[in-house]
Amino acid sequence: MQDHRVVVVGGGFGGVQVVNDLKGAPVRITMIDRRNHHLFQPLLYQVATTLLATSEIAWPIRNFFGDRPEVTTLLAEVVGVDSTAHEVLLKNGQRIPYDTLVLATGATHAYFGHDEWEPVAPGLKTLEDATTIRRRLLLAFEQAEMETDPAVREALLTFVIVGAGPTGVELAGIISELARTTLPKEFRNIDTSKAKIILVEAGPRVLAAFAEDLSDYARRELELHGVDLRFGKPVTSCTAEGVTIGEVFVPCRTIVWAAGVEASPAAKWLDIPADRAGRALVDKDLRAPGKGDVFVIGDTAAVMRDDGSPVPGIAPAAKQQGAYVAKVIKAKLAGKPVPGPFHYRHQGSLATIGKSAAIIDFGWLKLRGWLAWWVWGLAHIYFLIGVRWRIAVAWSWLWIYISRQHSARLITQRETMREE
User: Fold this and answer.
1) What local confidence, expressed as pLDDT, does residue 1 receive?
2) pLDDT digits (tens, 9 = 90+) for 45-95
3) The dihedral of CA 59, 395, 134, 315: what is its sign?
4) pLDDT recorded at residue 415
5) By C-alpha distance, which of 52, 20, 46, 12 is closest to 392?
6) Which long-range contacts link 95-100 to residues 24+ away (Cβ below 8 Å)?
7) Annotated catalytic residue within 142, 147, 154, 170
8) What residues contact 13, with CB distance under 8 A and at least 6 apart?
9) Which H/E stretch holds residue 30?
10) How far is CA 281 from CA 10, 105, 304, in A?
């Protein structure tokens, strides 16, 4: 009797959790991802803002499963699923057969019908995004140092972040610290501390998913960091010359998009219903409707809590879903009753505003300020994979805390999204 063939598409938190938890089961696993690394996405903004190096938050997927002979890792791009033939379709024309398929293909940034803005306003979902943003951020200061036109110099020293969720707030806080604490003594012709950081939010407040008192604390901290908060009006245009907020044009050379997400096309591959963000509407056991051998998890799926609210698109949720799917697969293969419907256990919401400032909402306990910042740091170090990387990130943060110097300020690549 042949081992059960499990194909997992996506090497993020959910996909890796499925493979980890299937260890010892009578299965042959194929892990497919179009990148060769697993990314610790919660710290991606720290690569974009020069705090961490890429190697500190990303690890080769093959390295995870080198001692697992039943796991085959493929660097390939999936373009479709033939659910009738039970095959995954790759861009190179190959077909990978499966008995059980797990789609954990994540999401990308959404521009609400204005995809033409992406070249000038990159989002932050991949290492390539982070290094592109880091390059533009550092080049803005370098170009301003040599610019003689005051208007152009002001535009170079204006940084606009669109979207005041956790990513936008964290970016704004760190860019402010970079400009006001790390760089001032290194430049001679410009005062980097006078850089303008503008955070744009179409809604009425920052961090809308948090309790209002924590949101108010974050707003006050951002203002203390010198961040210019613009509420109530959406961005209506993004160009290489600047951004239009409502009807007001703001000259700037660096725009970062943190305003929305759009799921991968997994729902289209399976020809099943999706929500407005493209997330597949799955059954309570995370299966694709009408396709009992296909599971959809993580940011790719629209999963509802018991109270009808959506499960948030965060790493702990994806890991819980991956663990649940592995349990279902193992129970089925063992001829045992499968677990009941998936139940999400919310472990808390966290966001950092800058050095020594963060907010945490555990539901039963709310923290803010210095203590929350330390809890936030310890939580992220705990979820990193491997002792080596936990030590590396902890050391980098300690060095930055003591020296106030960001260590990853290298401009190392050619511009990949637009011409300089």
Assistant:
1) 44
2) 999 999 999 989 999 999 999 999 999 999 999 999 999 999 999 999 999
3) positive
4) 63
5) 52
6) 96/7, 96/30, 96/32, 97/5, 97/7, 98/5, 98/6, 98/7, 98/30, 98/293, 99/4, 99/5, 99/6, 99/293, 100/4, 100/5, 100/6, 100/7, 100/293, 100/294, 100/295, 100/329
7) 170
8) 41, 298, 315, 318, 319, 322
9) strand 27-33
10) 18, 15, 9
Q: How far apart are CA 12 and CA 175, in angstroms?
A: 27
Answer yes or no: are the C-beta atoms of 96 and 85 closer than 8 Å: no
Residue 276, φ and ψ in degrees, nearest 5:
-65, -25
Q: Is 170 a catalytic residue?
A: yes
Altogether, the residues listed in the chain come to a count of 420
Q: What is the pLDDT of residues 366-387, one digit of tens each?
A: 999 999 999 999 989 888 877 8
- Alpha carbon distance 369, 49 (integer Å): 21
Q: Structure tokens of 256? A: 């970062």
Query: Of 284, 315, 292, which Cα lies nearest the Cα of 16?
Result: 315
- Tokens 């491997």 identify what position? 386
In terms of Cα–Cα distance, which of 87, 69, 89 is closest to 79?
89
- pLDDT tens per residue across span 4-14: 999 999 999 99
Tens digit of pLDDT for each residue in 188-198? 999 999 999 99
DSSP assignment of 50-86: TSS-GGGTEEEHHHHTTT-TTEEEEE--EEEEETTTT
Residues 6+ apart with CB under 8 A from 19: 8, 29, 31, 64, 65, 68, 71
